[in-house]
Write a structure and sequence with these properties.
mainly alpha, Formate dehydrogenase/DMSO reductase fold, single chain, two-stranded antiparallel sheet, 2 strands, 1% strand
Length: 410
């Protein structure tokens, strides 16, 4: 009877897994249809326009890149600062970073309208453009991530029959410290440049400031570490195996919380400097328009600062909360959600409202509006389906954790 129950449980688990994979494949199908419509008909199938040139896809892109920052953060900690107790999570961090960056590149391929011209920034240099520098950094860092992910794939059991490939993977693995240095430099460059993209917009007074690059880095560190730890705990729950010990969970929680508090410190002082202690005409006018047309003020304080900032910081730094996996996972999920809300606020709330001199502005009325079209939503569903499906298969079949942990050892 016990054997029969065990077999029934395994069968049920396999059925659930196949249903989950089928759902993700359906999401991929929706995304492929949206991509086909975009490539065949052009960006006219979206609700973006000359006055609202960035929409859902760029928010998806910035969120995916920010949440993939655990790769460079933990690689730097392990291979540069020689803190070896983080090593059991290294491969997971690199894999999550790889999925984050490839997801971002898929969204960008649709957003640029002519993906066949992606190589233009590599040939036609515009050294005065922040976006040109970001393009180079993303391409180079994605290459670094591919080099770091290849050994994980080649060392799986499916390549045991090809010893030469596994020998090649060992040689690649020896390059990990070098890749960690390159990865940290490239990732820091473009994570900060993403913030600088908005910080150099002199026509958008609310973002025209030097603090955004630093805040983008800190929020990416907090979000990337949180995403890596959250996904690790989810896999642990599904496998019913402790993949990392409680001390590593504690250290990663503290790292995410301290990065989050540093981000909140700069964020609140940045708000005070531009909105409380000073009232420059350009910034005051921009804030007035923003608050009149978007829920920016409420989402800034109640979502970004309180719900996704202070609440998870308290959870991650409080030992009784941290020891309860459900509460800890909730705190990590709130940080992840906060990064997405921040990227949405900076990209859409801040750019949908045009400056006072814009042709779309009549007096104090703002004519620019944006709601994602169903094609944009379909593409984002497909990109999300790709990332989730790849993670599902990777977590099941790839050696992302030390063998002792994979086997359920103490």
């Amino acid at each position: 009877m016990a054997v029969f129950r065990a077999m029934e449980k395994r069968s049920l688990s396999k059925t659930t897994f196949m249903l989950w994979v089928a759902t993700l494949c359906a999401m991929l199908g929706i995304g492929f249809y949206g991509m086909y419509q975009t490539l065949w008909n052009g960006l006219q199938v979206t609700n973006m326009s000359d006055r609202v040139p960035w929409g859902l896809w760029i928010t998806h892109d910035l969120s995916a890149i920010g949440l993939g920052a655990g790769a460079f953060t933990l690689s730097a900690i392990i291979y540069l600062f020689r803190i070896k107790r983080f090593e059991p999570i290294a491969r997971m961090a690199v894999f999550v970073g790889f999925l984050g960056y490839t997801s971002a590149m898929l969204a960008l391929a649709m957003d640029i309208g002519r993906p066949d011209r992606f190589w233009h920034p590599l040939v036609y240099w515009n050294v005065h453009s922040v976006l040109w520098e970001i393009t180079w950094c993303v391409i180079l860092y994605s290459t670094v991530l591919v080099i770091e992910v290849l050994p994980i794939i080649l060392e799986s059991q499916y390549f045991d029959r090809w010893p030469k490939l596994q020998s090649f993977s060992h040689k690649l693995h020896k390059l990990t410290p070098v890749m960690a240095v390159l990865g940290m430099a490239l990732s820091l460059l473009h994570q900060s440049s993403l913030g600088a993209t908005y910080g150099v917009l002199s026509g958008r007074a609310i973002w025209f400031k030097p603090s955004l690059p630093v805040m983008f880095i800190l929020s990416a560190v907090a979000g990337g570490v949180s995403m890596t730890l959250l996904l690790t705990m989810i896999v642990s729950k599904l496998r019913n195996v402790e993949l990392i010990d409680k001390w590593l969970r504690r250290d990663m929680s503290r790292l995410a919380a301290f990065a989050l508090l540093a981000y909140l410190y700069l964020k609140v002082w940045d708000w005070a400097a531009t909105n409380y202690y000073s009232h420059a005409p350009g910034t005051a006018d921009a804030m007035m328009r923003l608050q009149a047309t978007t829920p920016y003020n409420e989402s800034f304080w109640w979502l970004e600062v309180v719900l996704c900032g202070l609440v998870p910081a308290v959870i991650l730094l409080n030992r009784p909360f941290r020891r309860r996996h459900g509460i800890l996972m909730t705190g990590l999920a709130l940080i992840v959600f906060g990064v997405v809300v921040n990227r949405w606020n900076v990209t859409l709330s801040g750019l949908v409202v045009p400056p006072s001199w814009s042709p779309g502005v009549l007096g104090n009325a703002v004519a620019a509006t944006y709601v994602p079209s169903w094609i944009e939503i379909a593409v984002s569903i497909g990109v999300l389906g790709y990332a989730t499906l790849a993670f599902t298969l990777g977590a099941k079949y790839l050696p992302l954790f030390p063998k002792k942990a994979e086997d359920g050892g103490d």
